[in-house]
TrEMBL record:
The modification N6-(pyridoxal phosphate)lysine is found at residue 197. Keywords: Aminotransferase, Pyridoxal phosphate, Transferase. GO terms for molecular function: alanine-glyoxylate transaminase activity; L-serine-pyruvate transaminase activity. Substrate binds at residue 346. Its cofactor is pyridoxal 5'-phosphate. This is Alanine-glyoxylate aminotransferase. Belongs to the class-V pyridoxal-phosphate-dependent aminotransferase family. Coiled coil: none annotated. It comes from Azoarcus indigens. Pfam families: Aminotran_5. Residues 23-335 form the Aminotransferase class V domain. GO terms for biological process: glycine biosynthetic process, by transamination of glyoxylate. Transmembrane segments: none annotated. It comes from the Bacteria.
Amino acid sequence: MISSFTPPQRILMGPGPSDVPQRILDAMARPTIGHLDPAFAELMEQTKTLLRYAFQTENALTFPVSAPGSAGMEMCFVNLVEPGDTVIVCRNGVFGGRMLENVKRCGGVPVVVDDAWGAAVDPAKVRAAFEANPQARMLAFVHAETSTGAQSDAAALAAIAREFGALTIMDCVTSLGGTPVRVDEWGIDAAYSGSQKCLSCTPGLSPVTFSERAVERVRARRMPVQSWFLDLSLVLGYWQSGGHRTYHHTAPVNPMYALHEALVMLREEGLENAWARHRAMHLRLKAELEALGLSFVVAEQDRLPQLNAVHVPAGVDEAAIRARLLTEFDLEIGAGLGDMAGKIWRIGLMGHSAREENVLHCADALRQCLGGERMAA
Ligand SMILES: *Cc1c(COP(=O)(O)O)cnc(C)c1O
């Protein structure tokens, strides 16, 4: 018989979602109110203010899209890329590949800058791509490539785009709240993130931010945005401050309580402290993993603290180990994607998951599983 669902208690150390603190779950359980209720409007205003802090921006157009990170990605591309626009797309993992797919579907003309999976995006290649394609109107790159654990130099990449008069779209789904993201200082025009990675909120919301230059580009479009739901000019009427808020769609009211709480917690901790905590926990985990003989996929200087990709030792059945971790230790870690499937593990230290007890639990569980695996071999 089907009755109420009770999830198992897990420790989430994969590529997201991350552990959600009870305080955020409690916030989500508060009574649902109408999405046009003045009290909800106040929550929306506060959420925008808190997101500006998280993104380190003054952008007026900063809000959460009512859908997961992939929708934030799509919102950036469908609004900012018109048919025929040349877009330089950096691809050093799965999510850069998705950006490329978005450019194609918007009718853009992509110029792909490829770097090896596990490497950061090479700014020299991006510069060369702009020199060969001076008509390019846009640069798109992933700041924190969750498929490999590599971080790219967003400031350097955005500066090159500016030099060539292009706008920049940045994926900061995995970096926001975990490593420095400085939208204004770096001169990023559009950025999108996700609620369930280093913000440690429940999945399903995508914070986005757009610069004044990006808004101008949307206003100057030759044709309407193909997507009705993601058309910024329509969503604006819903998210605008002060004025008359009109019905666009029904906001996910309770998940919005959760995001608000997650952002309040981030502000209480302080961004710098959150970044330092992710870094400290990464160093703890690194020592433990290296003691187990595991080696990292990404070169030390490009490593993301919140996503630790390690090579699976030769002869080890990686899926069997992950299954044991889940069933015996209630611990979720991530598998490799694409070309890296079966070859790497991705151990996340995102948001509330980046705690010492988790690091020790993970190291202990891996030690037991790998020891057993070797004895069986
Ligand atoms: C998780 C992730 C996404 C997609 O977010 P969803 O919430 O799963 O749609 C996009 N880009 C990066 C880098 C991610 O890690």
